[in-house]
Amino acid sequence: xxxxxxxxxxxxxxxxxxxxxxxxxxxxxxxxxxxxxxxxxxxxxxxxxxxxxxxxxxxxxxxxxxxxxxxxxxxxxxxxxxxxxxxxxxxxxxxxxxxxxxxxxxxxxxxxxxxxxxxxxxxxxxxxxxxxxxxxxxxxxxxxxxxxxxxxxxxxxxxxxxxxxxxxxxxxxxxxxxxxxxxxxxxxxxxxxxxxxxxxxxxxxxxxxxxxxxxxxxxxxxxxxxxxxxxxxxxxxxxxxxxxxxxxxxxxxxxxxxxxxxxxxxxxxxxxxxxxxxxxxxxxxxxxxxxxxxxxxxxxxxxxxxxxxxxxxxxxxxxxxxxxxxxxxxxxxxxxxxxxxxxxxxxxxxxxxxxxxxxxxxxxxxxxxxxxxxxxxxxxxxxxxxxxxxxxxxxxxxxxxxxxxxxxxxxxxxxxxxxxxxxxxxxxxxxxxxxxxxxxxxxxxxxxxxxxxxxxxxxxxx
Length: 462
Fold this sequence. Notes:
Strand content: 25-35%
CATH topology of the largest domain: TIM Barrel
CATH superfamily of the largest domain: Glycosidases
CATH architecture of the largest domain: Alpha-Beta Barrel
Distance between the termini: 36 Å
Largest sheet: 8 strands, parallel, barrel
CATH class of the largest domain: Alpha Beta
Low-confidence stretches: 3-34, 36-65, 129-139
Number of helices: 11
Shape: globular
Number of strands: 24
Mean pLDDT: 84
Helix content: 25-40%
Strand order of the largest sheet: 9-10-12-15-16-17-18-24
């Protein structure tokens, strides 16, 4: 059973009812169009709302890339808790005060004062040179990370994909190590793909997860038990460190899912302490987090993840911008472009852009209609094979920018949504538009050569 596909449906439903859920905007009706159309912890912010660009800003007035030193313009300037005039005033700042830019959003800049406080100031109120800094992600630094997983011991789909794509990948996260309630971390080191990655210059990351194969989902009890005990947290951190050192991983990817929202502070503390242990040794600390477009701290599935705090602890944050629809919902796109962009627009107000890896799905789902039957995960090729067997040409849903089709099997009508070259290109454009560090693909082996072709073309790699 695929560990990312079989996430616990009951927990997801609780999240959806609690917060409105990221997949609950009404889906547009299918349109019969061809499926390939022409082509340290800081003060948290309030949940951002939609704001409009500050009027009166002219070219050249927007002051700085992230990491730049700038100064305040005017006699007294208000610093707010979020990127817009609808946010509360945190303090007022005297003109000429030197401050540092952390990130930006819609012509508002998040800054750090000399005393360490942070807040947001409209761009036209700042003076400074446009220096490249931490936030300036150049084309040559766009990264592609792939998740490596096996549905059963010895499965070769991910290995074949890694062999094919190793010259394009920046890193690979091996879904190989499991956490238990006592903080023990165990698993199998996959030496063959690890050696292939390392010899090809691809950064290998050890992924640590809380997936329970017996329960068929991510286990909230396991991760909560570990997080709420200082002794167990320390044990997990020490064992992760030992794994990296023993096998030669370049860093870790923490993939804890279904974390209870009341464990939010414990999760942040764990990541803080993990970074304190690993970073002095030169190890990367990365984390996979669920997609959301607001904070929603009390919501199941997403509430435990403090984007703002985690974005300042981790070297990279892989935002899982997929499973907008899944086994927990009715049919619909795995990751519609509007939903993905909504998540990204929130993320860049919380996490520095050069630390954001946008999730890119390489799979789809096959739903039964009208009850009866199971929802099945399908790879790109499996979706195409189903359509071919039933003599169906996939259609294109233009609002979602995603292909789909319907068919009948065993007297049951079914609906399939999946990804193809056009849908991937549309999502990749979002990562480029918002100048993110790169993309993280779930998972290697679900895609085919056409997937890499569109990545190569979109990134100008020939």
